[in-house]
Amino acid sequence: MKQARTVVAILMLVVAGAGFWAALQSGYFGPLSDSAKQASKIEIGGPFELVDHWGEKVTDADFKGANTLIFFGYTFCPDVCPTTLTNISTALDILGDEAGDMNVLFITVDPERDKPEYLKEYLEHFHPAIIGLTGNPLQIKKVAKAYGVYYAKAQEDGADEDDYFMDHTSLVFIMGSDGSYKAHFSHTSEPEAIVTKIKEHS
Question: Which CATH number characterizes residue 103's domain?
């Protein structure tokens, strides 16, 4: 019980912190001074080494030269991940040739189950431009930390070892052609809103 309360408290702090940062960025508390703007900046992104859903080793350098959408999730996700990937797929269809050479990466937060072959099979249900990435637990931990992404295994008492969900941050990041952070949008964003966001930073 004590452990459950601790987990809830941590989650509340994570959500509150994210909300506070978003409020700062949006000017909710009024105009920020130059020094305050500098202090409120958060570094997002960084180098990584992972494996794509074809089993090939890739690094962040392989995706530079074009804008990149990055979403962290997992194939056993019951709702948020398939809905987000469907909306991204629809947005890419709307953009058509306007999407250009944009990369779209789906990075698993469940490397224990999401091996390349499972990612490949899962992503066949979405836009062919979406690339699944996995790795060992340490590699996933490193890339998630670089993007400020929270994830944790959620398992009921007495459940089978392989019967669990993953709590995780569900933002979609827009990274520039040089790998720098440009913007992000929520997993609840509709395809038309995603298209608008992508065009703003293309």
Answer: 3.40.30.10
- The pair of structure tokens assigned to 115 is 């091996």
Identify whether residues 1 and 96 lie together within a single domain.
no
SS3 of the chain: helix, strand, coil, percent, to 5 = 40, 20, 40
Cβ atoms 191, 86 nearer than 8 A = no
Q: Domain total for the chain? A: 2
User: pLDDT category, 156, cuts 50, 70, 90?
Assistant: confident
Measured CA angle at 74 (ends 71, 75), to 5 deg: 125
d(CA 58, CA 60): 7
13 and 61 in a single domain? The answer is no
Q: In what helix (H) or strand (E) does residue 195 lie, and over which residues does it extend?
A: helix 191-200
Beta bridge partners of 50: 58
Instruction: Work out the number of other CB atoms within 10 angstroms of the CB of residue 83.
Output: 14
Instruction: Write out pLDDT tens, residues 92-123.
Output: 999 999 988 999 999 999 999 999 999 999 99
The amino acid that residue 47 corresponds to is P
- Distance, CA of 114 to CA of 39 (rounded, Å): 37
* Alpha carbons 193 and 82: distance in angstroms, whole number: 17
Q: Which tokens go with 16?
A: 């509150």
